[in-house]
Structures are given as C-alpha cells and as structure tokens.
Design goal:
Number of domains: 2
Shape: globular
Number of helices: 7
Oligomer: single chain
Structural class: alpha+beta
Number of strands: 6
Strand content: 15-25%
Strand order of the largest sheet: 3-4-6-5
C-alpha cells in the first residue's frame, strides 16, 4: 500500500488543531536508527525538506514538549516514502514504539493486566495527545476479545496502521499472547465518525 499525499494534503494535515508529545518522534528516530542507521535518518529528514516540513529528530525534539499533531502523520509518511516502509512495516513501527517510550514502560510496569490496560488506556492517550479520546468499549476475556475506539480526531490511514501495531503490542504484554487487530471507521448515531479497533488473541 502506498500512502498518497499531495501538497494540499500536507497543508491541511499541518493545520489540524492539537498537539502531541515529542516522545512519539523520538520513538520514530530510534526505529529508523535501529533499522537503517543514521543514514536512514538523513534520508527521512531530506524527504521532510522536500515536503517543506524541515524537521530534526535528534536536535529539535524534547520528549515531554508538545508539537503540532499534524507532524505525527507527516513524520510517518516521510519515513514511508524515504525508506520504502510498507503497511506492515508501519505496523511494526507501532509495535516497537512502546519499547522506546519511558512513559509507556512506566505504565506497563504498573498496569500489566488486560483489565488495567482497559481501565487506563484513555488516561495514557491524554498524556500524549491534546485532542481526541481513546475509549475502551468492550472486553470479554472468555472470548479473548477487546474493543476500543478513538473519537474526535481524524486519523490518516498511515496513523491508523501505526496504532494497530502500537495497541496490539501493549495488549500482548497484558495477555501474554500475540494479538490480532482490525481497524474500522464507523459513524455514531449523531453522525460523528470514529475509529474502532477490535483485538483478539
């Protein structure tokens, strides 16, 4: 899958309201370095320059500071374009991200059970993003199934794929087994669109 984007799309993405913690870009940086070395980082930053979104992962980003949420999507697209990372690779990025985040490591040390993950997921979203809401909606441990939805934010397909990997890894740590995830865009009774993630193991 190729994540298509135009100059107009870039402008629209960058103008979306909301902020995200810098730690998400540091996890991108760690993934690139582990897979492609510093040369990979240079290629991605050159792609960002071509997209007129100059950005330095190593020098400009502070883990706990907030940055425009649109750069979260732009960063992933630049990585996809510069390094040829396909959809499965983007999911792999999401799965690797919690390993690099001190915030998530702290969370997992204290809430390593599916029940606690279910309970605290929304709180962790709020620590990373100033817009949107992550709400677990259903959990059935006997059927080995959990559902969660993201509301009040429009997700680019590349970010949806990233979250599939990210959430599945965290839940895997809670249930002790590989987790499969399906993401669907849905619409509530009042006409608002949201993203539902269904996890099974």
């Amino acid at each position: 899958m190729s994540y298509q984007i135009t100059e107009q799309d870039i402008d629209e993405i960058l103008n979306k309201p909301g902020k995200v913690r810098g730690v998400v870009f540091k996890t991108d940086y760690r993934f690139i370095v582990d897979k492609f070395g510093e040369g990979g980082v240079k290629r991605v930053e050159e792609e960002l320059e071509r997209m007129k979104c100059s950005f330095s992962y190593k020098d400009e980003i502070d883990n706990m500071s907030f940055y425009p949420i649109g750069m979260r999507t732009i960063s992933l697209i630049a990585i996809h374009k510069a390094l040829g990372i396909d959809r499965e690779g983007i999911k792999e990025m999401g799965m690797n991200a919690p390993k690099f985040s001190l915030m998530i490591k702290f969370f997992m040390r204290h809430f390593l059970s599916p029940e606690k993950i279910f309970e605290k997921a929304g709180e962790m979203w709020e620590k990373h993003y100033t817009v949107g809401a992550l709400k677990p909606t259903e959990m059935d441990l006997e059927k080995r199934c959990m559902k969660a939805s993201i509301y009040d934010i429009e997700l680019h397909p590349i970010l949806s794929d990233y979250f599939c990997g990210y959430f599945s890894f965290i839940l895997k740590m809670g249930v002790g087994e590989d987790v499969s995830v399906v993401e669907e865009q849905k619409e509530s009774e009042d006409g608002n669109k949201y993203h539902e993630f269904t996890f099974t193991w």
